[in-house]
Amino acid sequence: MSAGATLPLLATFRDPAGSLEIRPDGVYRSVRAPHDAEVQAFLDLPLARDLVRSGRLIASEIISRDAASQMLLMSHPLIFFSSYPWEWPPVSWRAAAELTLALCRDLLKEGWILKDATPLNVLFRGADPIFVDVLSIQRVNWDQPVWHAYGQFIRTFLLPMLANTKLGWPLQATLIRRDGYEPENIFSALPWYTRIQQPALSSVTLPVLFAKFTSSVKVGEKANFLKEPDVVKEILLKSLCRLEAQIRRISFTSNSSHWSDYTDTSSHYNDEDHSNKRSFVARALSRSNSLRVLDVGCNTGTYSLLAAELNAEVVAIDSDPQTVDRLSRKGAKNVLPLCIDLAFPTPAIGWENREYPSFLSRCDGKFDTVMMLAVLHHLLLSSQIPLDHIARLCNRLTTDCLIVEWVPPTDAKYVEIMRGRETIYNHITESAFRKAFAAYFGVTDELTLANGRILFHLKRRPA
Asked: Do 182 and 106 share a structural domain?
C-alpha cells in the first residue's frame, strides 16, 4: 500500500443479525439465519413498500440466498453523501429524531418495532432524513410492554439535544460519544430549575435519583395482562408519544453569531457587486453543467441555494453552527448543510479508524464543482494554511471545476483578520495565488468586482 493510502472501510460488525459493506457500486448487506426470514417477511409487507415510496426507509433488493452459509444478500442504493450526527446542525438532529419515532410508531401498528434507535441509523438526502438500517426492524414481542431501544433513544438523541440547548454543549462532541450520554453525565451540570422541568425531569433527574433501586419484577416474569397484544401495543404507543412530546419540548432557538448575520449586515459589497457576483457564479455553474457541488464556507447558503436552483446536489459546509442551522431551517431539498471546518475536518474514527470515514475521504470523486467564496483569506490568515496546500486540497476535492474568490490584502475584511501582522503575511499576494493554483487549474473566466475582490472560474488540469 502506498504512503498516505487509506484502508478500505470495515464491513459493519456490531449487529449479530448481519453486516453492511459499502462498495463503489452500491451498499451490500448480508443477513444471517434465522434473521433472514424476518427481514424477508418485513420486505414483503405493503408497509415496507409504502415506507420506501414515501422516502422514509431505504430501498432494499434481495440479490441471493446462500443455502450453504444460510446467508441472505441484499443491496441498497447509495446515498449521494454520507454524513454523521456529529456533523449535523440542530434542525437535522430534530428531523432524525422525529423520523425515528414516527417510523417506530407506524411499524408498531402493524406488529413490528425498531430494536435500535440511534442517529447513526439515519442519513440525509438534502434536508430529508431517511432510515437506512433495515436490520433494526423486527417483530414485536407481545410478552414485553417495553421498547428496548427506549434508553438508547434517550442517550443518543434526547440527552445530546438537551445538553446542547440547556448547557451549550456542542452536538459535534458526539464524535467521541457514539453511545450518547448517561443521565449522570449531565445531571450535575444542569441548573436546579431545569432538572425539575421536562424533558430533563423524566430523562435525567428521575433516572439519577432512582438509579440505586432495582426493578421488583424478576427477569422472565410476565404479567397476565401482557397476553393481550392490544394492551401491549397501547403501552408502547404511549411511550413513543411521550418521547415525541419530550423532543418537542427541546426548543432549538436560532441563535445569532458573528457570521450568521454576515450576509445581511456585510457592508463590503454594494448592490452591484452582489448582483455581479451572483451572475458570475450562476454562469460558471451553468457553463460547467455542475451536478454535484461542495460549497466551502457556505454561510447561510446564498450560493448553495443558487446551485440547487440550477439542479445541482449540494453539500454545504461551514465551521459556524449557527449559520449552518440557519441554512438547514430553509429546508432546501437538494442542499445538505453540515458543520465542518475545512481546516480541521472530521477525522476517521471507530474501530481501527475504519468504521466512520473522514470527511475528506468521503469527498473523493464526489464533486464536479467546488465553491470557495469569501473563505480563502480565512484559511490563509485565521487557520494559517499555505496557499500551495489549499490549492492541492482543492485539486483533490473537485473532479472538474473550482469557483474561488480572491480577497486582496487591501480588503477591509482581510485587514481585520490580519490584525497588524502585515510582515508575517506580506508573501500572500495575487501573483502568489495565481501561481499556486496554476499548478492544478487553468482559468476559464474571471471578474474583478468594484470592491477589488476577484472571482475565478477555474478548470482542473488533467492529472
From this structure: yes
pLDDT tens for 179-201 read 999 999 999 999 988 999 999 98
Q: Which residues pair with 401 in a beta bridge?
A: 369, 459
Choose among 224, 371, 240, 215: nearest CA to 304.
Answer: 371
The vertex-322 CA angle with 318 and 328, nearest 5°, equals 75
User: Region 112-130: what's the mean pLDDT?
Assistant: 95
Q: Let me know whether 25 and 53 are in one domain.
A: yes
Whether residues 235 and 303 fall in one domain: no
Beta bridge partners of residue 131, listed in sequence order: 57, 122
Determine, yes or no, domain membership for 3. no
Q: Are 24 and 103 in the same domain? A: no
Rounded Cα distance between 163 and 252, Å, is 11
- Report yes or no on 257 lying in a domain: no
For 59-75, letters b (16+ CB in 10 Å) and e give bbeeeeeeeeeebbbbb
Domains of the chain: total: 3
Partnered with residue 367 across adjacent β-strands are 398
pLDDT band for position 255 (cuts 50, 70, 90): low
Domain span including residue 433: 267-460
pTM value > 0.85: yes
- Same domain assignment for residues 95 and 71: no
Question: Contact, 399 vs 460, CB < 8 A?
Answer: yes
CB of 397 closer than 8 Å to CB of 390: no
pLDDT digits 0-9 by tens, 415-448: 887 777 777 888 889 999 999 999 999 999 999 9
Sequence-separated contacts (24+) of 222-227 with Cβ below 8 Å:
222/143, 226/142, 226/143, 226/144, 226/145, 227/142, 227/143
303: Cα within 13 Å, side-chain hemisphere: 34
